[in-house]
């Protein structure tokens, strides 16, 4: 079968190649999915560039891609609840062979029936951003009526998270640039802040939760806008102490991280607040809940561009530009 593979760490143009490889064999707890569509996420180019090699070192050539929508064509002996012919979607586990391929084998627990009202391309863009947002809100002890700041409302994560937050009864602040203000408002955000013209630090007050999708100085600044005892959940900022340990980072790296994290730690203590970095994990049950929200019309996929599988490397470059408006999709069939 045809698969896009990572051949080494570094420049994405030089280290991604289409190869003809063997179709994966299913283990007893896995299903084989014929891939109809997949979605690119920033993590895909970050992995090629080596940004995650301290957490997970690749053996080359290595598969790539985490989001998939397709049809089950084979099931392992121990699989119950999924059958050949099911139309499914998944954010596959980190050690799965990669979804930018004609077929991918995935542990059945990470797979769910896709929303019936969506095409494969639309469904493929939901699992990673959906699970990340849902897990961030859980971590941030979100409850109905909370005031939430979601940075980068026009991105893959932000365009999902705004809709999810509204479906759960939040008051939503979000940031975006001039060209995106109107359509981001249409996603349901209560207050859209144009970061090119306005300073959100002077607008957002007493947020219960900041969903930090930008990292850098945005992580520390989040504590200026949360209420006492509030939560900052980051997916792009510095690792918290527990997460760094769980990732298996060595003592020296954890010590350096603790020093770098000091401004965040001080800001957090001043507000008696909470800080957590999360890394999304696969969860078929959570995808069932997401399907219900989509089929009820509460969340709509936001697709920026659809690329043919043969143009996958161009899609990586576009995702890396940092200005995608929603999701970047690969169409395989
Ligand atoms: N830890 C995890 O498990 C996890 C999971 C998913 C994603 N992530 C990370 O989360 C980050 C966001 O992911 P994504 O998929 O949403 O990325 P994305 O789709 O590439 O985000 C692009 C969007 O960010 C907006 N943006 C850029 N700079 C901004 C700023 N200063 N203020 C407000 N908006 C800004 C852009 O809007 P304009 O064009 O208007 O500037 C664009 O629409 C990435 O770093 C990704 O790696 C982590």
UniProtKB/TrEMBL annotation:
The keyword Oxidoreductase applies. The keyword Oxidoreductase applies. Pfam families: ADH_N, ADH_zinc_N_2. It comes from Gaetbulibacter aestuarii. InterPro entries: ADH-like_N, ER, GroES-like_sf, NAD(P)-bd_dom_sf, Quin_OxRdtase/zeta-crystal_CS, YIM1/Zinc_Alcohol_DH_Fams. Residues 10-330 form the Enoyl reductase (ER) domain. Transmembrane segments: none annotated. Keywords: Oxidoreductase. GO terms for molecular function: oxidoreductase activity. Its EC number is 1.-.-.-. This is NADP-dependent oxidoreductase. SMART domains: PKS_ER.
């Amino acid at each position: 079968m045809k698969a896009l593979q990572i051949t080494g760490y570094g420049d994405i143009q030089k280290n991604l190649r289409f190869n003809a490889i063997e179709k994966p064999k299913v283990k007893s707890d896995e299903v084989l999915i014929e891939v109809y569509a997949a979605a690119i996420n920033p993590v895909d180019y970050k992995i090629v560039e080596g940004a995650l090699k301290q957490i997970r070192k690749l053996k080359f050539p290595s598969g790539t891609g985490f989001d998939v929508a397709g049809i089950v064509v084979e099931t392992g002996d121990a699989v119950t609840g999924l059958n050949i012919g099911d139309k499914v979607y998944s954010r596959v586990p980190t050690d799965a062979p990669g979804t930018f391929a004609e077929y991918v084998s995935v542990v059945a627990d990470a797979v769910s029936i896709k929303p019936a009202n969506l095409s494969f391309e639309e469904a493929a863009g939901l699992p990673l951003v959906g699970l990340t947002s849902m897990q961030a809100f859980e971590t941030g002890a979100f409850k109905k009526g909370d005031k939430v700041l979601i940075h980068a409302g026009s991105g893959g994560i932000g365009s999902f998270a705004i809709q999810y937050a509204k479906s759960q009864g939040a008051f939503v602040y979000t940031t975006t640039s001039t060209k995106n203000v109107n359509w981001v408002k249409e996603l349901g955000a209560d207050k859209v802040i144009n970061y090119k013209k306005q300073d959100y630090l002077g607008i957002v007050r007493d947020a219960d939760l900041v969903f930090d999708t930008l990292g850098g100085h945005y992580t520390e600044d989040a504590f200026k806008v949360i209420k006492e005892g509030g939560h900052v959940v980051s997916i792009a900022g510095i690792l918290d102490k527990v997460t760094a340990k769980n990732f298996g980072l060595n003592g020296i790296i954890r010590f350096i991280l603790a020093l770098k994290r000091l401004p965040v730690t001080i800001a957090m203590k001043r507000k008696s607040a909470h800080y957590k970095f999360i890394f999304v994990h696969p969860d078929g049950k959570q995808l069932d809940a997401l399907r219900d929200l989509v089929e009820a019309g509460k969340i709509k996929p936001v697709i920026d561009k659809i690329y043919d599988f043969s143009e996958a490397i161009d899609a990586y470059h576009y995702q890396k530009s940092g200005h995608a408006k929603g999701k970047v999709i690969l169409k395989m069939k």
